[in-house]
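fold description:
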Amino acid sequence: MKKVSVIIPVYNVKDYLPDCLESVKNQTMADIEVILVDDGSTDESGKICDSFAKENENAKVFHKENGGLSDARNFGLAKAGGEYIFFLDSDDEIDSDACRRLYDEAKKSDADMVIGEAELKVPSASMERFENVVRENFDYGRVYSGKEYLMGCLSHGALRVEVGRSLHKSEFLSKNGLEFKFGVLHEDEDFTPRELYAAEKIKLAEYKCYRYNNKRSGSIMNSCDKAKKRACDRVKIY
């Protein structure tokens, strides 16, 4: 069993995917597997995935019909064999030490989740407000229950839900039937509270492990239209 499975759903991101994959290739932890789920891309993304897999023996590529981000992540979960899961969006990047540092932190207390810090390519007041809530009200390295963390964040008016900033224990996800809900956009807003509610042990890492590309206008992160949010995620928006 690999220590970490990095799951990367891919859909029409040929301009961003090479940098994303380079950040995975540069991981200081060798004992990882990379699960690339090409979700029916119509550009060169699928070929980029195939090329990466040929050059990196720890990478696997799966090509499937488009089903949306939730469906692609769930597909990747079904194929993953790692002890822990790291979700990486194909237009984002991770720090070279991300897998190793979060995994080491998780193993210290057999955590269900380790939540790291993130940074944006474009500064965000809301992101900074959340980071301040965590810094001021929680202790890094201490073990909390997911409910303690969830209610603590909500009581101070700020909860970040992006799954990419966290490492997730595979056994915990499977035991609690935690998958992404098919048919919604902004699926992390549904998944993360359910995961936190079920988690017995979570830890916070004072470490910027994830870099969000919030400059990309077509990404879900920058899609705030309420009608779109209610629409099925099979509309091919990532």
